[in-house]
Design a protein that fits this description.
By secondary structure, this protein is of the alpha/beta class. The protein has a single domain, classed as LarA, N-terminal domain (Rossmann fold, 3-Layer(aba) Sandwich), CATH 3.40.50.11440. It contains 8 helices and 10 strands. Helix 2 links the parallel strand 1 and strand 2. Helix 6 packs parallel to helix 8. It is globular, with a radius of gyration of 17 Å. The N and C termini lie close together (10 Å). 49% of the residues are buried.
């Protein structure tokens, strides 16, 4: 599915050039197994790593700033083993590797950012689709919380504006949304397999607003008016909430 999605977007070489340093940003926030659908599917991560090597990348880095203890998250998610098997460089969130950056946002002013995200040539956003108690769903733009250090829970007080600020700062090369397993309830941490639905879907594209809007509507029947950060991001010129007006290609395998 990842191969097909990238092919439908024009192929991996549309996004990755020879000698690029590519950072792949899955959700590795939680001490959960792949079946619990709290983190990005490790097979999705592994395939994106393979694709980047095929395009001639110089370095392929997989990293995230976890919420639970990072070593446990990287291991139990299956992402560390899957990415390492494909030759990716795994970087855990070392406190020494954060740099204070002016993010230029309305809410997000100066904040510590994990340096691999500042030094990459290309960044692939690999979120997983999950329910979230504050925003209705946590999708591509919410995945950017994982570039930040500091007290991220403070951002929940103005979560929609902070998400818009982050999306403005971090414009991904491409977003590949893992909807293979979708955590429909009790997100973002999950834990109960009864809350997980097997959808066997990958949603990919270059418009981060449209992707979040499509997935929110498809799995939670949420409109942009119910997710203010989407309309705020669209107003800032980061994409469109009107995904119906875009050329959407649906491919089925098997």
């Amino acid at each position: 599915m990842v191969q097909r999605a990238l092919a439908d977007l024009g192929g991996i070489r549309r996004f990755v050039s020879r000698q690029d340093v590519v950072v792949i940003k899955p959700n590795i926030a939680w001490d959960r197994t792949p079946e619990q659908a709290a983190n990005t599917n490790p097979e999705v991560v592994a395939e994106v790593v393979r694709q980047c090597w095929q395009a001639g990348a110089k370095r392929v880095i997989v990293t995230d700033v976890s919420c639970n203890e990072a070593r446990r998250c990287f291991q139990r998610s299956g992402i560390q083993a899957a990415a390492h098997a494909e030759g990716a460089e795994i970087i855990l969130p070392d406190p020494e590797l954060f740099r204070e950056v002016d993010l230029g946002g309305v809410v997000l002013k100066s904040w510590p950012v994990f340096t691999p995200f500042l030094e990459a040539d290309k960044i692939f956003n690999l979120p997983i689709a999950k329910h979230h108690v504050l925003t209705g769903a946590t999708l591509g733009m919410k995945n950017w919380y994982g570039i930040l250090g500091g007290q991220r829970n403070r951002l929940h007080q103005q979560i929609h504006q902070s998400l818009c600020d982050l999306a403005n700062f971090m414009l991904p090369t491409v977003t590949i949304m893992d909807c293979y397993r979708v955590l429909l309830r009790n997100g973002p941490t999950g834990g109960n397999l009864e809350d997980v639905a097997l959808k066997k879907t990958i949603v990919a594209g270059t418009d981060p607003v449209a992707i979040d809007a499509w997935v929110a509507k498809a799995y939670w029947n949420l409109d942009p008016a119910q997710m203010p950060y989407l309309e705020m991001a669209a107003a800032r010129g980061l994409g469109t909430v009107d995904f119906e007006k875009l050329h959407v290609k649906v491919s089925q395998l098997g």
